[in-house]
Amino acid sequence: MSGDTSKESAETGGDTRTTGAATGSAPAGGVLTIDLAALADNWRMLAARIAPAACAAVVKADAYGLGVARAAPALRAAGARTFFVALAEEAAPLRAAVPDATLYVLGGLLPGNVDAMLAADARPVLGSLPEIADWAAACAARGADLPAALHVDTGMNRLGLSLEEARQVAERGAGFTPSLVMTHLACGDTPGHPLTALQRERFAAVAALFPGVPASLANSAGCLLPRSYHFDLARPGVALYGGRSLASAPALKPVVRLEVPVIQLRTGEAGESVGYGAASTLTRRSRLAILSLGYADGFLRASGASDARRGAEVILAGQRCPLVGRVSMDLCAIDITDLPDGAVTRGDRAVVLGDGLSVDDLAAHAGTIGYEVLTSLGRRYRRVYLGG
Ligand SMILES: *Cc1c(COP(=O)(O)O)cnc(C)c1O
User: Fold this and answer.
1) How far is residue 21 from each of residues 26, 28, 266, 376, measured CA to CA in Å?
2) In this structure, are strands 82-85 and 102-105 parallel, antiparallel, or unpaired?
């Protein structure tokens, strides 16, 4: 975090401070702080790593939950010129945020979506022959060579032309000039997975069929692979937002910080249970801090604790303290018995993300990945942007 409070701005207006309840306007829910300077630093670090290949930014799903209206301009200011979203509907808000950038829509073209694409001056990533035919028809109807990308499937069986279809398109022409040819790694996050090298080899052969068209393969994990994986343009997403793309990835800067208030302190007796389903039983007289944080905030229910399993941890009074019992919709309980008496008072903030607790740490407790933690971040947090 930059710690530069002079640059803070709260989306919801009012008191922009992230700590302190002196004015009486303390938020009753969580405060999510998004460090745009760290986001920009992460982009610059990846861009430097893959140069001379160019570095785009993937900002689908509202910039992985962080807010595309703030994230995209910060990335643009750092130097990003090309942006990717998933849906045609995501193109218009992105266009408003970065008026002069090149925009691609990864999900491609649905019937009837040409106008939406053109209205946002976005380029579809076409992954099937019918999509290519639709785009070629739109070009013909308008007498224009409208740019679009071609997506080739090299081993994931998700989106993209088969290798044979790509060869056909290369031979017969697409009906427009492709502005990018791309593929996507299925196992970039699994070091040494044999599919990764195979995909690179297949893609290199396909890219050679489209001379002069920039080629793109690498996501965040791909940026960390050797140069031969970078081609002309990389498409990192999660690493920009401080998520880990590889267990061994170099530490990028954390971008999100989440603090939530303690709304009640209580004491439970040995043998009593905590929360729904009586899933956790207290083994000693215990002090509990009840947090204003639940699964409706994207604090995944799967990160809850029971007698059989440890749950997530939060930081209170500078110490990591464990969840006890299940995560409710709006609440969860933290065991603070090991903290000194009086170390926590009502209205204090627990750190859920930040101070060494990463989105990947939280994800691990819920049996998921940092991507899901980021894109689940709650809509009712007060959002504060730093360094924008
Ligand atoms: C989401 C996505 C990316 C970004 O992936 P990260 O793992 O978040 O870096 C890149 N390319 C495509 C096609 C994607 O769908």
Assistant:
1) 5, 10, 21, 27
2) parallel
Q: Phi and psi of 69, rounded to 5°?
A: -65, -30
- The predicted-structure confidence for 314-344, as pLDDT tens digits, reads as follows 999 999 999 999 999 999 999 999 999 999 9
Asked if residue 376 has its Cβ within 6 Å of ligand 1, the reply is no
Please state the three-class secondary structure of 336-357 as a single string: CCCCCCCCCCCCCEEEEEECCE
Q: Say yes or no: CB of residue 185 within 6 Å of ligand 1.
A: no
Q: What is the pTM of this model?
A: 0.93
Distance 325 CA to ligand 1 centre (A): 35
For ligand 1, whether the C-beta of 183 sits within 6 Å is no
Placement of tokens 């989306």 in the chain: 11
Domains of the chain: 36-241 (3.20.20.10), 256-357 (2.40.37.10)
Q: What is the 3-state secondary structure (H, E, C) of 255-275?
A: CEEEEEEEEEEEEECCCCEEC
pLDDT tens track for 189-237: 898 999 999 999 999 999 999 999 999 999 999 999 999 999 999 999 9
Pocket test for ligand 1, best of 59, 235, 252 (most atoms within 8 A of CB): 235
